[in-house]
């Protein structure tokens, strides 16, 4: 498969292997958008999932935060036994989840949040994620969870063994731990251990993270064949449109493959207007309106 993701129809995506998806992202040349939503929160609009809203406003990939692989709970989809399958059917997009490699040996800088087993990175959750045909997982940490770079490294090894989809690894922010978020040594080690891509905070979202540092690690990661994701996970996904445009152009200069907008706005998804603004900024109206208008029946 040699088609870029931003030009793919639902029928193309359905046929993709994990390698096909990775190649399609690379072929899109830094114009792929990943939208994230908290599935335990009520949908922004009654009668429609937040995933559908993100897809309608041009997100190419969908990330479900706080999804428990054992309970399979999504607010508004309580009676659905296979919600991942349903979201794929409704949107025609690749769907991923966060699984958190919690490090209980580290001291957190704020009161630690206790996670259910279905949200933590483990052999059992990786197997269950594969069984549900989840396309990708992000090994990362929500605020105050105590996820460390070392615990992410250990989880990558397990994920490579038990999960069949793409593996992305890295931190969007401190996750309650006082350690360097952008560590070139750690990020390149993630790739060495088998991660298909790394997450780095977009410049301007985490204090002290700048384009110069990010450009270096992104360039080296891409040289190793890995994908790179510029994340906005600091509630700035609900900032004004001009800020979102700055993030998009900054990520372009850095060279990331995927632009992420997190779940920190009202409704616990990116503001739809910000998804639209980001899309127009990084790929223009032609590609934006194409993504927004394309039928999932194609």
Description:
With 298 residues, the protein is of the alpha/beta class. The chain has one domain (5-293): Phosphoenolpyruvate-binding domains (TIM Barrel). The chain has helices at residues 10-14, 18-27, 50-56, 83-91, 123-131, 149-162, 184-193, 211-223, 241-254, 272-293; strands at residues 32-38, 61-65, 95-99, 136-139, 166-170, 197-201, 227-231, 258-261. The protein has an 8-stranded parallel barrel with strand order 1-2-3-4-5-6-7-8, surrounded by 7 helices. Helix 9 links the parallel strand 7 (227-231) and strand 8 (258-261). The longest helix is centred in the last third of the chain and has 22 residues, at 272-293. The model has no long low-confidence stretch (mean pLDDT 95).
Tell me which oligomeric state these chains represent: single chain
Largest sheet: 8 strands, parallel, barrel
Q: Give the ordered list of helices and strands.
A: HHEHEHEHEHEHEHEHEH
Quickly give the structural class: alpha/beta
Number of domains: 1
Q: What portion of residues belong to β-strands?
A: 5-15%
**CATH homology superfamily name:** Phosphoenolpyruvate-binding domains
- Termini, distance in Å? 17 Å
Tell me the overall shape: globular
Mean pLDDT: 95
- Largest sheet, spatial ordering of strands: 1-2-3-4-5-6-7-8
